[in-house]
Write a structure and sequence with these properties.
- 4% of the residues lie in helices and 54% in strands.
- It contains 2 helices and 39 strands.
- A hairpin with a 2-residue loop joins strand 1 and strand 2.
- The chain is elongated and about 120 Å long.
Length: 455
C-alpha cells in the first residue's frame, strides 16, 4: 500500500478538527482516556511518570507511554482512508523522546506516531512500538499491519518482527528485532490461598543485544497488564496480585533504544481459587478446614486436570470437592501435558462436641437428667461463629429440652417422663450448617419403690 501523508498535513487535519472545545459531549466521547499511570503536562507536552501512562481508545485499543516518555496525544481522531473506501478513526501521537506502544487490536481505530516529523508510523491492526531520542528514532512491528514513512516519503508496510530505524549517520535502515527469549515457568497452576497469588518462579535465557527484559502478564481479571522490567534473566520480586483466572505471560528482550524484541510464546498460567462453605477457613499451614459433608468449590478448573485423594487419577473440570469423613483429602491441579502440580489440602475443622450426662445412672422419676455439652477444637479459630443445635430423642421420639448456656458449655435438662421404662436418652449436636459435631446416650431406668417389710 502506498500513499503520501506528510506530518504538516497531519497537523493541519488535526487542527482543522477543532481540538479543545469544551462542553462538547460528542467530542469527549471520541477522545483517548487516561486510564492508568499518569504524569505532568507542561506547555502541552505530557511527561509520563514512574508508572508510565496508558490511554484507552473509544473503539478499543491502547496507547502506552513508558516511564519518562515525553509526548503529545491529540484528542480528536482523523478519518483516514487506510483501507479504501473505509475511513478509519486515527489518533495522532507526537513523540519527543522515550518509548510508546500502540495496540489497536482488530483495527476499529488506528494510531499514528510521529517523531519530529522525520519518521512516521501507523498501526491499523495489531501493535507497534516507537522509540525516539538523541536525534534517533525507530519503530517496530509487533504483529499486524504497520505502515511507516520517512520525511515526505510514501507509506510502506513494515513486516512483522522488523524495525525501521532512522539516524543522522546511516539514514533509514530496516533490521530484525531481538530474538525471543526461551522462558521457563515451573509452576503454571497457582493456588490463591488468600484470594490471590503472585508469579515468582519465572526465568528466561539471555538474548544477545538485550539491555533488559520486559515481563507482561495479561488476563481478563486485570484491568491493565502487569509489567515488570528486569536487567536479569529472572523475576527478582513476585509479580501480582493475580486473582483466580486464566493469564498469559509474555517476555520480550528490550534493546538499548527501548524497542522491544520478538515475544516469546505466551506461557499460560491459571490461578485457582477456593470458595469455602460457611464456617470454613484456612489454617496457618494453608490447609482448608471444613466440616465433614461440606463442599469446597475450586475455580476456574476449565482446561485443567484435577485429581482428588490418593487414587492419582486426573479428571477434567472436577471443581467441587466434598469432605466425606474426618480423615481429610488432597486435591491436585495441573495443565494437560505438564508435570508440575499444584496442591490444596482439605482437612476437617476438628470441632468436637463432648456430651456428659449427670447423673451417670439416672432413674425416673427421681432425677432430672442433665447433659453438659462442651465444644472443643485444637485450633480455636474453628470455634469462631459456631452456633450448635441440639436434637434430643427419647427412644425414637424427638422431645423438648431446656437449654442454658453456662460458660463454655451448654446444659440440656430433661425432666422425668412417665411410662414403664427403661428409656434411652440420646443427644445429637450439630452446627448451624448441619455438620454433626458429636452425640451420646444414656439409659434411664424406672426408680424402684422400696419394699415394705412384713411384720
Amino acid at each position: 500500500m502506498r500513499f503520501r501523508h506528510p506530518l504538516a498535513l497531519i497537523l493541519l487535519v488535526v487542527a482543522s478538527l477543532g481540538l479543545g472545545r469544551a462542553g462538547d459531549a460528542a467530542e469527549r466521547s471520541t477522545k483517548p482516556k487516561l486510564v492508568h499511570g499518569g504524569g505532568e503536562n507542561t506547555s502541552g507536552v505530557f511527561h509520563a511518570g514512574a508508572d508510565g501512562a496508558t490511554w484507552s481508545l473509544p473503539k478499543g485499543g491502547r496507547i502506552m507511554a513508558a516511564a519518562g516518555a515525553e509526548l503529545r496525544v491529540f484528542g480528536k481522531p482523523q478519518a483516514l482512508v487506510l483501507e479504501p473506501p473505509k475511513r478509519t478513526p486515527t489518533y495522532t501521537v507526537m513523540l519527543l523522546s522515550g518509548v510508546v506502544h500502540a495496540d489497536v487490536g482488530e483495527g476499529k481505530s488506528a494510531v499514528l506516531v510521529s517523531a519530529s516529523g522525520k519518521l512516521n508510523a501507523i498501526v491499523k491492526r495489531g501493535s507497534m512500538a516507537f522509540a525516539a531520542g538523541g536525534g534517533h528514532s525507530a519503530v517496530a512491528s509487533l504483529g499486524g499491519d504497520v505502515l511507516t514513512a520517512t520525511t515526505r516519503g510514501a507509506y510502506r508496510k513494515l513486516a512483522s518482527s522488523q524495525a525501521l530505524e532512522l539516524s543522522p549517520e546511516q539514514g533509514a535502515t530496516t533490521r530484525g528485532l531481538l530474538a525471543a527469549p526461551r522462558v521457563a515457568l515451573p509452576n503454571q497452576v497457582l493456588m490463591a490461598h488468600d484470594g490471590s497469588a503472585s508469579l515468582a518462579a519465572l526465568s528466561w535465557q539471555s538474548v544477545p543485544g538485550a539491555s533488559r527484559y520486559l515481563v507482561e502478564v495479561r488476563g481478563r481479571g486485570l484491568e491493565h497488564p502487569l509489567r515488570r522490567s528486569s536487567t536479569q534473566t529472572q523475576l527478582t520480586a513476585p509479580l501480582g496480585p493475580l486473582t483466580p483466572g486464566h493469564y498469559e505471560v509474555h517476555v520480550r528482550a528490550v534493546e538499548q533504544s527501548g524497542l522491544p524484541g520478538q515475544a516469546a510464546t505466551p506461557t499460560r498460567v491459571t490461578v485457582v481459587g477456593a470458595q469455602l462453605p460457611e464456617g470454613g477457613y484456612r489454617d496457618d499451614q494453608g490447609a482448608i478446614r471444613i466440616g465433614a459433608g461440606q463442599t469446597v468449590l475450586f475455580a476456574p478448573v476449565d482446561g485443567l486436570d484435577v485429581a482428588t485423594g490418593r487414587d492419582g487419577r486426573f479428571l477434567r473440570s472436577q471443581g467441587a470437592v466434598t469432605l466425606k469423613d474426618e480423615r481429610g483429602t488432597s486435591v491436585f491441579f495441573k495443565l494437560p501435558g505438564t508435570v508440575s502440580v499444584a496442591r490444596a489440602d482439605i482437612a476437617p475443622r476438628g470441632v468436637r462436641a463432648h456430651v456428659d450426662f449427670a447423673p451417670k445412672n439416672p432413674e425416673w422419676p427421681r432425677h432430672t437428667v442433665r447433659a453438659r455439652v462442651r465444644l472443643r477444637a485444637q485450633d480455636t479459630r474453628a470455634l469462631a461463629g459456631i452456633a450448635p443445635t441440639f436434637r434430643v430423642m427419647l427412644g425414637v421420639e424427638v422431645i423438648e429440652a431446656d437449654v442454658q448456656a453456662h460458660g463454655d458449655s451448654y446444659i440440656l435438662s430433661v425432666k422425668p417422663h412417665s411410662g414403664p421404662g427403661p428409656w434411652v436418652l440420646r443427644v445429637e449436636v450439630r452446627d448451624q450448617w448441619d455438620v454433626e459435631l458429636g452425640r451420646s446416650s444414656v439409659e434411664i431406668v424406672r426408680e424402684e419403690k422400696p419394699r415394705r417389710r412384713r411384720r
